[in-house]
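Section handout 9: paired folding examples.
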Amino acid sequence: MRLIHWFSCVLKRMAKRRQLCLAAWLIACSGVALAGVMADRTRVIFSDGAQAQSVTLVNTNDYPVMLQIWVDNGEGSSIPDTIVSSMFVMPAVFRLQSHEVKSIRVLYTGDVLPAGRESLSWLNLYEIPILPAGDQNNDTPRVLLGLNTQIKIFYRPEGLQAPAGSIATALDFQIRRKDEQWFVVCHNRSAYFASFGGMAVQAGDRQYPIQQLPDMMTPPMGEGVYPIAAEVGVRFDRISASLNYTLIDDSGNLVAGAAKLNAVISADSAANKE
């Protein structure tokens, strides 16, 4: 699950300079934003060709909100009316009272998706606070903030059920260097997305964390590249290294794993040799 943006929805009777200052402050503070509308899961999974899934939402705010919900491919900033997706939501727009609980349905349209492997979409929960009736005619300057929360949707076509065990056995890891930056490269031989909660390289008595990316996922039958937070001059090709990581399973739980890092691929060195 991720929070992707805050922005100003209503600005009343403010000078342009004050608007710019406020916008800058909102951007600076957006990293600590917390969603008020919470879902009962961190991911929605369609297994073995399922056509629909239910998601329960609760408004934990002390005020009502308007919710607009849609499915996209992760863009987050696109206008819902212009998005083409193999999923849709019912209902798509509704009011949710403070502490109210409501279920929505995510439905598969039947569009052709890749066979034999998972497909990924994102469920968007966009919430806007509702002003109390007595405040709507108030001339006091105010700002209403909209918050969009994204939840992963994994679609598994008919015949592809939940993995029987951990997909860790289908993952291979290498270290690669480009210029002065080192990367961990994950090769995923499974039919499922590998979602990582975190990674760190152990080299000698030191541990080097992986820089956290917005989406720490390696696609099925694909490759994921993750930068190592290491100072310039570290040479992973001259020391023995291993990788500690956590995978996120279907229930959203973290499963710890470890792997030896295979032979180093140094992209810039290879180019120099040529």
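Moving on to protein 2 of 2.
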Amino acid sequence: MSPSLSVILWGVPKPTDGPSPSGFCQKLEAYLRWASVSYTHGSEPNPGKAPKGKVPFADVTLDGKTERLSDSTFIIRHLIAKGSAADPDVDAGLTAVRRADSRAWQAWLEELIYPAVVTERWVVDANWATTKQEVFGSMSWPLRVFLPWMLRRRITGLMWAQGVGRHSQAEREVIVAEFVDALEAKLSASSGPYFHGEKMSMFDITAASFIANSLGTKGNPYFAGLVLKSPTLVSFARRVNGELFPEYKNVLNLLDDAQGELQKKAV
């Protein structure tokens, strides 16, 4: 890491001892932890005010020059291209074929599975009350009243336009379960504890981040429930998040408890 590099990670407000309510903010922070990049948090409760109308975005200062960048993937690529931070896939020794494989899995997770999880959290009425209290309950009036209504309306529209919001919840559960089964099979077949073997790759960082994001809320019980029933995914999520975020006691305890229950059932 360049000694002159500093980053302000702008995202939705998050607890100091738990994951961000945004999976993409969590992904970027996990990468910064992995790469040992110095960063601080900036809070933007309304993603609509961010560049590109979404979080995360970042103020990246290198050699005294500050650039404002948007989108977790492009922020990470910028840091790697500038030689300011390491590339997990290079560090893991991935071939071009394995990098392509990772990119396909990342697209599957980010462009289909996460929207399905977000829809479960923000659009399904049974989960919305929980999400609303978790995300906005500590805000002052009138933000506590106006912002949830505005963001839910916006997210519902985005999920409809994206396509996943047009499916029924039962159909979305089929989509999510297929991914969980496939990820479990892929990790089980790996030659090491990570997706491609013995070293953490960018996909490991991404997948563990979205799992942590989902376990940090009670607003997506279906996806979280699938993860917690899988010994492979529990072990994977515990390993990566325990290494990068040892302060996430609630998430790590949840994974430890799930691991204990799964071990009892296996006896």
